[in-house]
Specification:
The chain is an alpha+beta fold and 614 residues long. The chain has 3 domains: 189 residues, Histidine kinase-like ATPase, C-terminal domain (Heat Shock Protein 90, 2-Layer Sandwich); 109 residues, Ribosomal Protein S5, domain 2, CATH 3.30.230; 274 residues, MutL, C-terminal domain, dimerisation subdomain (formyl-coa transferase, domain 3). 32% of the residues lie in helices and 23% in strands. It contains 18 helices and 27 strands. Helix 15 runs antiparallel to helix 16. It is globular and about 85 Å long.
């Protein structure tokens, strides 16, 4: 057995470097954070050779000759003095190991000047310090890193390709530039200008400049002192990965699964599987409720109350989505007045009407408004000299105005009264392929998926019934028993009041058994067992209170999907107009509960181009 020995200082420094500088992108992050802490308003970043060469120049406060000699020592920092300072940090670089670690695995040249002193320079060759010299640099600091990992070939071997490392550096720079929008960034890669972002007036302005995205919307939320500001995309603007999810805590770029879950949870029922939105989330926790020193690269943090952080972000994102601001570019602000084309009377007089039998669709939970559908009446031309294959809509509505009004009154008004853009203001033209409602505004023609649209209306209605506890409940003659783990049974029992609000009355029978005494009539026993088991597992793993709501929403989405009009069902003009009117009741009517878009839009300008009119 080997004896315990104290490691040489060289090995200690290289171990520390491995923690702080996992790859060149982390090196860039540490140096840029130091520039930000120095109060820089202009930062220039240059890199090449896969990040083995990096130069950071800023116009910050600079360092004195005494400071520049101490800055490469381990645990040397100007950011903290006592242990309590770790919980009230207002800076980024505080570990006191960044420059020390970088200098031990590279050749680093530091030049700096304060306004009240002359410029100084220092060169360190892989941990070996040279004498301090004079520098002609202006006020600020310039740090040049060369030959990164030259003395640690094992780490050099595991670097990825030059292109891959450059991509990581670019992402880090973008992330830091977004949150520090008042700082101008100039980025040079391989002697070519890559980015130049001048100082911006707002976070949104910088986001648009850096990410090159359109149609972004801002919102805010708060929960017990946790404040969140968000900039997000509409649910149609999605990505195949989570690369466009940016999270910041007190301006620090981080990665956090809980906050990502909050964003994705807010987008529930608006995205298809495998889709991710764009979201920039800036969270400000109360003083002393975040630990930023749990990860060597400071890319992760720990909240004293993670549920409040979750709620603040969730509320901020959801507040934007429920206002559906993207509809302003789709729907008109007032009713469209367009004359319906008249059918040629000569054709009508020589026509014979052939009726198809109506189809009954189960819509019991929505009243009788959509309980009857009617196939379009096909007009067959009996005059061989007239134009053949002429079809016309027989406008014989299956709904009276009174019935339509009763339906609308039964729906819960969730859209804001101030919302000027209405689906019902569109001019309904007819039905395409017995699947799509064709309507128009003053600027475009829209094709609306009747099944997806009605599915959203039904889904929102069911969810509202669940929330209000207005679903009919039936008692079981013999209680339904569900076997779960001991931890799961306890988690379900802790949520007992929430279950009762949703119409499920349960009690704990034993160590790992749950007895259900009553449940909503619409919920099958098999589905209920599955919900109990899956929710118990999620409550154990996440500890959140949103698991139950998510499961209920999934059930409502399934029920809605099987209870509405489908493709192939003919709707009368009155029914189509009634459906559009009901869509106005719910702000998220532009997406079905599974995330599919409800409509597509074709501008008249594009049609005119296709026909060569312009």
């Amino acid at each position: 057995m080997q004896k315990i020995k104290t490691l040489p200082q060289e090995v200690i420094n290289q171990i520390a470097a491995g923690e702080v500088v996992e790859r060149p992108a982390h090196l860039v992050k540490e140096l840029v954070e130091n520039s930000i802490d120095a109060g820089a308003t202009n930062i220039e970043i240059e890199f090449s050779q896969g990040g083995r060469f990096v130069r950071i120049k800023d116009n910050g406060s600079g360092m004195s000759p005494e400071d520049i000699e101490k800055c490469i020592e381990r645990h040397a920092t100007s950011k903290i003095i006592k242990s309590n300072d770790l919980w009230s940090l207002n800076s980024f670089g505080f570990r006191g190991e960044a420059l020390s670690s970088i200098s031990s695995v590279s050749k680093i040249t530091i030049q700096s000047k304060q306004e009240s002193s002359e410029g100084v320079g220092l060169i360190v060759h892989h941990g070996i310090k040279e004498n301090i010299t004079k520098s002609s640099l202006g006020v600020g600091t310039q740090i040049t890193v060369e030959e990164l990992f030259k003395n640690t070939p094992a780490r050099l071997k595991f670097l990825k390709s030059e292109a891959a490392e450059h991509t990581q550096i670019k992402n880090i720079i973008k992330g830091m530039a977004i949150s520090h929008y008042k700082i101008a960034f100039k980025v040079i890669c391989k002697n070519e200008l890559l980015y130049f972002w001048k100082s911006a007036n707002s976070l949104k302005e910088r986001v648009l400049d850096v990410l090159h995205q359109k149609n972004l919307y801002t919102g805010s939320g708060e929960a017990e002192g946790y404040k969140a500001k968000v900039i997000i995309s509409d649910p149609k603007n999605t990505f195949k990965t989570s690369r466009e999810l940016w999270f910041y805590v007190n301006g620090r770029l981080i990665k956090d699964r809980g906050l990502q879950a909050a964003v994705m949870g807010a987008y529930r029922s608006l995205l298809m599987h495998g889709e991710f939105p764009l979201a920039v989330v800036c969270l400000e926790p109360p003083q002393g409720e975040v630990d930023v020193n749990i990860h060597p690269t400071k890319s992760q943090v720990k909240f004293q109350n993670s549920s409040n952080a979750f709620r603040a972000v969730h509320r901020a994102v959801r507040s934007v989505l429920e206002s559906a601001p993207w509809l302003g570019d789709v729907l008109p602000t007032q009713s469209v007045s367009v004359s319906r084309p008249a059918v040629d009377p000569a054709v009508n007089s020589a026509s014979e009407v052939v009726n198809y039998a109506p189809v009954q669709v189960s819509q019991s939970f929505l009243g009788e408004a959509f309980s009857k559908t009617q196939y379009k009446q096909k007009t067959i031309n009996m005059n061989t000299e007239a134009t053949p294959n002429v079809q016309a809509w027989a406008e014989t509505p299956s709904l009276s105005e009174k019935a339509s009004d009763q339906l609308s009154e039964s729906m819960v008004v969730k859209a804001k009264e101030s919302q000027a853009n209405k689906w019902s203001s569109l001019q309904v033209i007819g039905q395409v392929d017995l699947t799509y409602i064709m309507a128009q505004s003053d600027e475009a023609v829209l094709f609306i998926d009747q099944h997806a649209a009605h599915e959203r209306v039904a889904y929102e209605t069911l969810v509202e019934h669940w929330s209000n506890g207005s679903i009919d409940v039936q008692n079981f003659l013999v209680p339904l028993t569900v076997e779960v783990s001991e931890e799961g049974a306890q988690a379900i029992e802790n949520q007992k009041q929430d279950w009762e609000k949703l119409g499920v009355f349960l009690e704990r029978l034993g160590v790992n058994s749950i007895a259900i005494n009553a449940a909503p009539q619409l919920l099958k026993e098999k589905a209920l067992k599955t919900v109990i088991k899956e929710t118990a597992e999620e409550l154990i793993s996440s500890g959140g209170s949103y698991s139950l709501e998510t499961k209920i929403r999934d059930i409502c989405a399934t029920l809605a999907c099987h209870s509405v009009v489908r493709a192939g069902h003919s709707l009368s003009l009155s029914e189509m107009e009634s459906l559009l009117k009901d869509m106005d009741r719910f702000p998220l009517s532009s997406f079905c509960p599974h995330g599919r878009p409800v409509y597509i839009k074709q501008n008249f300008t594009q049609l005119e181009k296709e026909f060569g009119r312009i």
